[in-house]
Amino acid sequence: FFPPVLQVAPETKAVMKWLRSIPFVLSASLHGGELVVTYPYDYSRHPLEEKMFSPTPDEKMFKMLAKAYADAHPVISDRSELRCGGNFVKRGGIINGAEWYSFTGGMADFNYLHTNCFEITVEVGCEKFPLEEELFTIWHENRDSLLNYMEMVHRGIKGIVSDKFGNPIKNARISVRGIQHDVTTGN
């Protein structure tokens, strides 16, 4: 489902190795050019299909994570369709990445498919390259959303998988009935 990337930059390889070595749970990628929160999959189930809804087995969790960010954002939560990002108002300021536009090689898809990390993508403003004097406002618009999103790390199942002697079990596979996506324990 996740097509191979022919050329992988050294810094990308380093990030991939880092993500596999530390059991991150949540991450967010910050972009510019729109005002919306997207979640995986970013790559369409059908490679020739643009704008095709492509949910992960954890669709409900990803929607909850994206909404946690969007609902705490003062502009994304604004119901005006005339503002930057207004075309996403009816969707609550969130969208499945591939339904917006499909692309291969994204970090959110990589994290979901190859690590235990759930990543959303936050488009922080309609300017792709905001001016330096706009960064303070962008920070303040996103600060509470980032904090709200970070608090989501406490949602779901957490604990220690151990043997009968209480020793943690490394790389134990954890399955949740009804969700076809396992995670593994860390060190």
Most strands sheet: 4 strands, mixed
Structural class: alpha/beta
CATH fold descriptor of the largest domain? Aminopeptidase
How many angstroms separate the termini? Answer: 28 Å
The number of distinct structural domains comes to 2
Record the strand order, biggest sheet.
1-4-2-3
Q: What would you say this structure looks like, in words?
A:
Belongs to the peptidase M14 family. InterPro entries: CarboxyPept-like_regulatory, CARBOXYPEPT_ZN_2, Peptidase_M14, Peptidase_M14_domain. Helix 2 (59-72) packs across helix 5 (135-151). The chain is globular. The chain has a 4-stranded mixed β-sheet, sandwiched between helices. It has a two-stranded antiparallel sheet with strand order 5-6. Helix 2 links the parallel strand 2 (34-39) and strand 3 (94-96). The longest helix has 17 residues, at 135-151. It has helices at residues 10-21, 59-72, 97-100, 107-114, 135-151, and strands at 26-31, 34-39, 94-96, 118-125, 173-176, 179-184. It is of the alpha/beta class.
Describe this structure in a few short sentences:
The active site is at residue 123. The protein has helices at 10-21, 59-72, 97-100, 107-114, 135-151, and strands spanning 26-31, 34-39, 94-96, 118-125, 173-176, 179-184.
